[in-house]
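step: validate -> pass
step: tokenize input -> pass
step: predict -> running
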Amino acid sequence: MRRVAVIGLKVAGGVLATILVYGAVTLVQVWLASRRDHAHKAQAIVVLGAAQYDGRPSDVLRARLDHAVDLYRRHLAPYIVVTGGRQPGDKYTEATAAADYLYTKDVPDADILREVSGRSTWQSLSSTAAFLKARHIKDVILVSDPFHSLRIGDIASELGLDNTTSPTRTSPITGFDAATYMGREAVAVAVGRIVGFRREAGVKGVVA
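step: predict -> pass
step: emit ->
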């Protein structure tokens, strides 16, 4: 019995060590991805949604949109895709607030595509992938906060989008808050890579 107990402890210790190493490696990957900007010529720029207040983008969303406008003006892609549905109690979708803001930056309506149903990162990217594929668009630049880069890239790849990430550098999320988000992202990426991001997000629908 003692030998069995010793073996059990060794196995448990080995499993714990593996989990810790895997988590640490993933955290480093999240951090490295947050520091890289891979923007290049693509077919569309996809902006991940964030909070809006009665039709006005939050500071977080505005920073993402400003970065997307910069990429657009550099002629890296002809379209900007804004994402995000309506949260409980909201009058406006995140995508609508984002599109209205882009108007103030002189982005033509014809160059703005909207995904208005997603209420999570996976849902927004899933819906975006579906309607972009219908337009024969697969090559995209993903714009969000730096800590978000690795996960959105992995999710987009799972959904069949050829993608690069170009995070905003003007986000109000900095310092300890950014480090906290980075830790959460590392956990989400670690779990998503094992079980799949669709399952990790708790979404049943499958995008073909």
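step: describe -> The chain has a mean pLDDT of 91.
step: cleanup -> pass
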